[in-house]
Amino acid sequence: MTSSPTSLPLEGVTVVSLEHAIAAPLATRHLADLGARVIKIERPGVGDFARAYDHRVDGLASHFVWVNRSKESLTLDVKQPEAQEILLKLLDEADVLVQNLAPGAAARLGLSFEALSERNPRLIVCDISGYGEGGPYTNKKAYDLLIQSESGFLSITGTPEEQVKAGISIADIAAGMYAYSNILGALIERGRTGRGRRIEIAMIDAMVEWMNFPMYYAYKDQQPPKRSGASHATIYPYGPFKAGDGRTVMLGLQNEREWAVFCDKVLQNAPLATDARFASNAQRTTHRDELRALIEQTFASLTGEDVIARLDAADIANAHVSTMNDIWSHPQLQARQRWTTVDSPVGPLPALQPPGMGPDRPARMDPVPALGAHTDAILAELGYGERIAALRAEGAV
Questions:
Q1: DSSP for 275-304, written as a single string
Q2: Are the C-beta atoms of residues 115 and 187 closer than 8 Å to each other?
């Protein structure tokens, strides 16, 4: 574990998680980053199915490495009575339970907030699902892409010809981050009241919250934002432009002052700023194809770095279109010492310090656990030391 000059804010908090895939594991990994003890319950012999998504990280799965560091892996077959007893013993002393099992599965296992709070009134229970309880979609299967679609995200993302999903699991990430922030709020509330509470996080709620801008833009059946590839749907020029060496540069203008500077200093065509076709953002958006041709005509004689140099000199917002390989060596991340390492079953792996934490206040960065790596230690802690072999033989752990 990376040493810290001061204690982390969640040290002493124990989180038990019946989790798989992304949403719940992401929430609990962030809790672990802040010092919480996270005990991840996994199915014996199989574990979180995200362990088998791919083998890209020296044999480990990329998603799993990302969202499961600093956790303890305890294997339990929670359908077996003795395993249920072990789980309840853990929850009697825990601060938080997080679960994203299939709808209704936790309640059938006796893990509802109502049942658990009778045993442990201080317990916070966070239930994560696709559509939440109540309503016609309660039991509907909900994977990330399906929620991207159901929430309306796909209707505004892509090209005019084709809808395109996000390249990362944004519905899972949104749900995980709202679970994380709500758990932090519940811990603060418990400090005042002495009691835990239930948190319900639905992926559809999280994604529709993120869709509020386009929803208001299309208020009362107005035209929604058009799909515009990597360009901004309602501000122009704001998006990718080709340079003469084939590289793409991303740039963005926010107001008329910047438009005039862009024409003068970057395009070196000051009169263009007052051209009636481009005299306001609305006009530039309407005539974006004509304006794109004029911009790329100028950029054709420049390399990508030349374009960025002109944009920087004019104080016009811009960015490289980075690849995954570029990010591993990104100069800003390197200069700010954002990279560290974590251990894993295959050895040390690079890892980013989480936002808000870094060299001066490092997060907890403990290993990515092997399946069941902590089972014996946790069972011994609970008083099952002499029963471990028998429990393993029975398939309970």
A1: -GGGSSHHHHHHTHHHHHHHHHHHHTTS-H
A2: no
Residue-range domains of the chain with CATH = 14-210+337-393 (3.40.50.10540), 238-321 (3.30.1540.10)
Phi and psi, residue 15, nearest 5°: -115, 130
Distance between CA 356 and CA 172 in Å, rounded? 21
The residue type of 151 is S
CA distance 286 to 275: 13
Q: Work out the burial of residue 135: count CB atoms within 10 Å of its CB; fewer than 13 is exposed, 13-18 middle, 19 or more buried.
A: exposed
Please state whether the predicted TM-score (pTM) of the whole model is above 0.85: yes
Name the region of 337 (left: φ>0; alpha: ψ -120 to 50; beta: rest): left
Q: Nearest to residue 142, comparing CAs of 211, 201, 63?
A: 201
175 — alpha (psi -120 to 50), left (phi > 0) or beta? Answer: alpha
Residue 213 exposed, middle or buried by CB count within 10 Å (0-12, 13-18, 19+): exposed
pLDDT above 50: residue 248: yes
- Secondary structure (3-state) at 254: coil
pLDDT category, 3, cuts 50, 70, 90? very low
Q: How far is CA 330 from the centre of its chain?
A: 20
The letter for the amino acid at 235 is I
The interaxial angle of helices 23-33 and 170-193, nearest 10 deg, is 50
- What Å distances lie between residue 351 and 64, 308, 328, 337, 361, CA to CA? 13, 29, 10, 11, 15
